[in-house]
Amino acid sequence: MSVSAAGGAGGGGIQGQMLEVTVVECQKLKDTEWFSRQDPYVCLEYGSTRFRTRTCTDGGKHPVFQEKFVFTLIEGLREINVVVWNSNTLTYDDLIGSGKIQIQDVLSRGYDDRPWPLQTKTGRYAGEIKLIMHYANANANKPTTSFAPSAPPYAAPPVSQVPLYSAPPPAMVPAYPPPGMAYPPPAVAFPLAAYPPASGYPSNLPNTAAYVTYPYPLPHDPSVYPPPPYPPPSAYPPPPHPPPLHASPYGPPGAYPGIYPPPY
């Protein structure tokens, strides 16, 4: 594979192209004031071009700017220097932090809105700054890339053609009803056996001729029906109730014989 790129970032070069940079805000800035809130502002430098934002009075650690600047790109220069200052009235301005903004990604993609870190003079963390960069000619300056084939193109093997049937295959299931058979089937020539079949063994059934059959209902037998009354009659008359008193052989008691009271 061979890649040809003229002008570094694009085939047509970036010399003289425009890059828009918007300073949005700063976050977590180092505080350089002891008794009041600091007043930050931002300075941008690209080549010999310098821009300065307005001072965000009492911005403190989170100043907001929302200011846009346009830079003329220089071939071979791929970074922007950024410095954040604290504005003082009576003394010199205090340096809060500084950093370098790489523009290689925005030149290739056309857009970049990431935050960038800031450092103090001693290299310590001093907060971050958020920029929005826009490059309109990113699509026109994409590198021209040509690929040399390293192998012949892949060709799929021919697919074997299966011959079609000239006639439909024979049926595997025979037709119903089978040929040569009429429906319904012909009658059976031999007589059917009687049911139950005749047996050579003697029959164990009783001889019904020995029994006398009676018509229904059976004749009335006065000696049997109706049943005798209850209780059965007795040949003797029943005793009277209550039974008569029997005569006593002693007779009823009479008067007391003798003199009453008896003598002493």
List the helices and strands and how they pair.
Elements: E1 2-4, E2 18-27, E3 40-46, E4 49-52, E5 64-72, E6 79-86, E7 94-102, H1 104-109, E8 111-112, E9 115-119, E10 125-134, E11 144-146
Antiparallel strand pairs: 1-11, 2-5, 2-10, 3-4, 3-6, 6-7, 8-10, 9-10
Describe the structure.
- The chain is mainly beta and 264 residues long.
- Helices cover 2% and strands 27% of the residues.
- The chain contains 1 helix and 11 strands; from the N terminus they run E-E-E-E-E-E-E-H-E-E-E-E.
- The strands form 3 sheets. Strands 2, 5, 8, 9 and 10 form a 5-stranded antiparallel sheet that branches. Strands 4-3-6-7 form a 4-stranded antiparallel sheet. It has a two-stranded antiparallel ribbon with strand order 1-11.
- The protein is elongated and about 185 Å long.
- The N terminus is likely disordered.
What features would you highlight for this structure?
264 residues; mainly beta; five-stranded antiparallel sheet; four-stranded antiparallel sheet; elongated
| Rg | 70 Å
Number of helices: 1
Helical fraction? under 10%
Structural class: mainly beta
- The shape is elongated
Biggest beta sheet attributes: 5 strands, antiparallel
Secondary-structure element order, N to C: EEEEEEEHEEEE
The percent range for strand residues is 25-35%
Low-pLDDT residue spans: 1-11
> How widely separated are the two ends?
183 Å
* DSSP E strands, number: 11
Mean pLDDT: 74
